[in-house]
Prior knowledge:
Mean pLDDT: 88
Radius of gyration: 31 Å
Organism: Psychroflexus longus
Largest sheet: none
Order of helices and strands: HHHHHHHHHHHHHHHHHHH
InterPro entries: ARM-type_fold
Strand content: under 5%
Number of strands: 0
Low-confidence stretches: none
Protein name: HEAT repeat-containing protein
Keywords: Membrane, Transmembrane, Transmembrane helix
Number of helices: 19
Distance between the termini: 86 Å
Helix content: over 70%
Transmembrane segments: 12-32
Amino acid sequence: MEKSNFIETVLIPYIIPILSILFLSVIILLFLNRLAIINFKILDKKIKRKLNDFLPEFFLAGLSEIEKDIEIEKFKSNHNISSYRFRELLVESLIELKNSLKGVDEREFIKIYEAFNLDKHSYNLLKSFFIFYKKKGIYQFEMMDYKPAAKDIEPYIHHRSKRLSANALIAFIILTEKDVSFLIDIKYQPSFAKEIEILEICKTRKLKRPDLLKNFLFSENDFIVRTGLRLAVYYNASDLESEITNCINHKNPSVRELAYVALADLFLEDKADEMISRYGEETVNNQTQIVSTLSKIGKENHLDFLKPLLLKSNYNELEIARTINSINPEALFKMANNNNRVEDIKKHINENLLK
């Protein structure tokens, strides 16, 4: 009886209508959201179409400076350039063209960037409360190669967000194109990918060798030491032979691996014995790297170390055999004649797919 009363007095007149209204509201909201997305896409296409007409002509039509200024003002008067979406699409289009159009003066892109106040747009993103927008602002400044923004980006190098600080670090290096010795003050550990990125920037931008490169190799920050080793190889810093060799005793295996690579790439032959003395204490990966390094700096006397290693090894025998072959092919040939296992290994290293 009570259950029947509840259904008749509460469920039917109140709860079911409320649930029905909520359900319909959700359906309507989803429909309106979908409609808004479609409208935004249509609007974006219209804006992109207009930008695709305006920008290529601006850059490629051979206009004089006065004609360019006239075209900019004409375009401004016909479009709502103050909207967030328009500015985002304009920056996006500029970045795309900057990457695809070769031979266009960089200053032409900056002219558009500043004429439409896109530098202020990127700056507002950088000053946003949200990390996502800060990263977007840094990205836009970096991709536009907008050097005046370097001073605004610099404080974010030490931001509490590691992703933001790492992005700021790379952007700052690109925009300043100066000595990267300031890296010595970095306290956090960016990713391995950032080490490669810094090296590539130094190569492509032809940055000068850091004045404090030697100090990198003594840093307590492993990221700085690894970056220092990569840069030492790039700048052919054979004058840092002693400091590089000290890194083979570093506590971090990844640092020691790069130190072995540096010994090979800088052809520091007189450090081979010191490196070999570390073999028994090393990780499997680093043992293989030591053997690989010997293929570049090893000498005849190091065969006494490599031959027994080949006979007992069960994980890096191919690398050992290649190294013996690079030092003295005859030595490997003789070993193969006297040992079936070595003969099989020798056949493997002669196969192109396994070299």
